[in-house]
Amino acid sequence: MSETPLLRIEDLSVGFQVAGGAIIPAVKNLNLDLMPGETLAIVGESGSGKSTTAHAIINLLPGTGRITGGRIMLDGQDLAQASEAELEKIRGTAIGFVPQDPMSNLNPVWSVGFQVEETVRANGLASTKQDVRKKAIEVLAQAGLTDAGSRMKQYPHQFSGGMRQRVLIGIGLAANPRILIADEPTSALDVTVQRAILDHLQERTREQGTAVILITHDLGLAAERAEQLVVMYRGQVVESGPSLEILKNPQHPYTKRLVQAAPGLSSRRLVSARTSVSATGKAAIAQADASTGTATAIAVNNLTKVYNIRSGTFTSTPLTAVDNVSFSIERGSTTALVGESGSGKSTVARMLLGLEKPTAGSILIDGEEVDHLGKAGMKALRRRMQPVFQDPYGSLNPLRSITATIAEPLLVHGVGNRAERQARVFELLDQVSLPRSIAGRYPSELSGGQRQRVAIARALALKPDIVILDEAVSALDVLVQAQILELLNDLQSEYGLTYLFITHDLAVVRLIADHVCVMNQGKIVEAATTQEVFDRPREDYTRKLLDAIPGATVKFGA
Amino acid sequence: MLGYTIRRVLQAVPVFFGTTLLIYFMVFAMPGDPIVALFGDRGVNEAVAEQLRARYHLDQPFFIQYFIYIGGVFQGDFGTSFSGQPVSEILASTFPVTIRLALLALLIEMVIGIGVGLIAGLRKGKIFDATALVVSLIFISLPIFVIAFVAQFTIALKLGWARATVSGGAPWEELILPAVVLATISVAYIIRLTRASVIETSQTDFVRTAYSKGLSRPRVVRVHILRNSLIPVVTFLAVDFGVLLVGATVTEGIFNVPGVGRTLYQAIIRGEGPTVVSFVTVMVLIYLVVNLIVDLLYAALDPRIRYGK
């Protein structure tokens, strides 16, 4: 291309100063050209420096971060050297910004209208009170808010996540900037909302001829939305060029791994446990089948949960979170419960675990009704049924060592003596492929993937037959996600485990599940084998979910 | 909002009866006969004593005494002190003084505490911040009577900038020095609280987004950092107003302020049930009202908090 780039980043280095004055580099010698009107995606896992790069461009690095070298050229001006006053003029007006998490990026104590009006005024788009208001309503209307005028007075908490992200996009594009930096603009949203938001973003930027820097960890999404791709790994660009070329023919080993791990539509079930279980797994399943007289590990019949939401001083309105849900899971198999947030899938999990009482319906574990179990029966059941939760940062007590964490279920159920428990902890660490040397460490010293392995080891400590995985891989980077899924699959085939896998991510479902139940607004709208759901979805809702998987239309290489 | 307010006011009813009953009982259960004590070193005249006991209903069982008192309260009669003065008169003469003192102290806390805390928080790790932290720590560790005596000695006696003791009517300007003394420890806490809160808010995503919109730093600080940081500070101030009312006793004593603290202390020593209970009840009521105001203020500061409809 003979055009001159709109934004040229040369040799950019960014570092974070730590106590003692040393500087830890986060971005090293990054070069990047952004052409007018083009969309460029920066892809990488967490900690790769992609967000740091985005923040460095508008000089909003968090904490002790600062640019340690290089130039960021916009219209012959070096942003790395610009004064705070000069940057104020560039932010919003020349470079718009759409942040990652719509929940935390609007100030909760000011109305949405106020926060838009403030942008309008700061960028000199209007000056009189009426004009500012008119322009703000226009911004919200363009963002896709119906009756924008009356929603001006509302507060962020009265908006859904998708709506808030629309507002943030509206704010980012309010002053018609030439560049828009979108930092993971949809990673916090449901997959269908994600699609709508990205379509909206694409439409708006195309209309205005805005160049976009899209920061994402999702290769599929990047391939679908961006012409140019920059792959970052440990603060450095490892590969860059046209998106499709990189995906079809990745050169760098890291990019190759990334492409392989991307759970696009083309991927298949890893290997079904029920059909190809190991001898030990088969024996475990057969033994359990015989002793309980049924091959059904979990049976849920007409399960309903109604919450009473306080609506006035003395009144409340019922909210049906789970509505007449029935499904069953064969021993040694995996059933995925899929749905958007608010679909009731996690409530089902909570009821199965006995953390929540059903309003109606029954849960049978190994043919035995859970409701009839006493306190002792419930404890015995918990021993056979263990959960793994979504957030490995929140689900491990930061003040307990890994050994203490994994051994806790053993202690609670009075299994073994101290030495035996320690031995079991080592055994479990081996099973989840963690080095024994981490036993004495604390969660803060581990990575997200390692923590999730610890959470899985804790769940397996009591040798359960059933594991309930509530969004167990959703918070992990794609490569780590692939490893954890593989681990779960291996453990299943080895021990004949039964999984209930709760997720919003259909791409992952295909890798791990035998059966899929699609939930929408508390109801199961479709239930079938994974193959069937993916190849011949019956319901429109399911089809909508499938279409929304980013990268669904892109053919991957490798 | 109205429903919520009504509910909160109704909640005050059991609190009112609970506290009055408890305090009345504690005064009743105090060892020693207050009437005998009145005679001091002189011999007790049984006839006079009997008469006094009947007049103050001290010859009645506990619950009768309590109900006579409560019945009177509802008719606006808070009983009489042993000196023959109606308790309502004592309340009317002392409470305004103490409330004035506490309000002054509160004002000083807000202006200095929030001001210094904000600057320290925005300049985290700089000289101003370090100094504010050290100075506030010193004030937190000093007992209030030390601060009071030092202030009285230097500012009033040596420098002559203020009167060492407060005169009868307790005018506003004479209350400034006692109010500053009363406020010092809380100011130190508020500096630290505001500072921590400002640092936390400065690191939030919405502050970064505010900058990304092209807003100037002063505007971001004023609009996005300060208001959000004030929410925990308001809680502290509310609790502190109650503490100031009660805790003024020492300061009032040193500066000779004719307020609640001194009077209440005397009444407790003499075992004057009606006086003690009336004072404490009024304090409890003020406390309840202040807390209600603060909870409503929350809703104004933070729109996510809405109480019913």
Topology:
The complex is a heterodimer of chains A (558) and B (309).
Chain A: E1 7-17, E2 23-34, E3 39-43, H1 50-57, E4 65-74, E5 77-78, H2 84-90, E6 95-98, H3 112-122, H4 129-142, H5 148-151, H6 161-173, E7 179-183, H7 191-208, E8 211-216, H8 219-225, E9 228-233, E10 236-242, H9 243-248, H10 253-261, H11 279-292, E11 296-310, E12 316-330, E13 334-338, H12 345-352, E14 360-365, E15 368-369, H13 375-384, E16 385-388, H14 402-412, H15 418-431, H16 448-460, E17 466-470, H17 478-495, E18 498-503, H18 506-512, E19 515-520, E20 523-529, H19 530-535, H20 540-548
Parallel strand pairs in A: 3-8, 3-9, 6-7, 7-8, 13-18, 13-19, 16-17, 17-18
Antiparallel strand pairs in A: 1-2, 1-4, 4-5, 9-10, 11-12, 11-14, 14-15, 19-20
Helix pairs in contact in A: 3-4, 6-7, 7-20, 11-17, 14-15, 14-16, 15-16
Chain B: H1 2-28, H2 34-39, H3 46-55, H4 62-74, H5 87-122, H6 127-141, H7 144-158, H8 172-202, H9 205-212, H10 217-255, H11 260-270, H12 273-301
Question: Can you give a write-up of this model?
Answer:
Chain B: Residues 95-298 form the ABC transmembrane type-1 domain. Chain B: One of its GO terms (cellular component) is plasma membrane. Chain B: The chain crosses the membrane at residues 12-30, 101-120, 132-155, 175-193, 229-255, 275-301. Chain B: It is found in: Cell membrane. The complex is a heterodimer of chains A (558) and B (309). By secondary structure, chain A is of the alpha/beta class. Chain A folds into two domains: 5-261, 3-Layer(aba) Sandwich (Rossmann fold); 330-355 and 372-546, Rossmann fold (3-Layer(aba) Sandwich), CATH 3.40.50.300. Chain A has helices spanning 50-57, 84-90, 112-122, 129-142, 148-151, 161-173, 191-208, 219-225, 243-248, 253-261, 279-292, 345-352, 375-384, 402-412, 418-431, 448-460, 478-495, 506-512, 530-535, 540-548, and strands at 7-17, 23-34, 39-43, 65-74, 77-78, 95-98, 179-183, 211-216, 228-233, 236-242, 296-310, 316-330, 334-338, 360-365, 368-369, 385-388, 466-470, 498-503, 515-520, 523-529. In chain A, helix 11 packs across helix 17 and helix 14 runs parallel beside helix 16. The longest helix of chain A is centred in the middle third of the chain and has 18 residues, at 191-208. Chain A is globular and about 75 Å long. The model of chain A has no long low-confidence stretch (mean pLDDT 85). By secondary structure, chain B is an all-alpha fold. Chain B has two domains: 1-76 and 271-308, no CATH class; 85-269, MetI-like (MetI-like fold, Orthogonal Bundle), CATH 1.10.3720. Chain B has helices spanning 2-28, 34-39, 46-55, 62-74, 87-122, 127-141, 144-158, 172-202, 205-212, 217-255, 260-270, 273-301. In chain B, helix 5 (87-122) runs parallel beside helix 8 (172-202) and helix 7 (144-158) crosses helix 10. At the A-B interface, helix 2, helix 3 and helix 6 of A face helix 1, helix 9 and helix 10 of B.
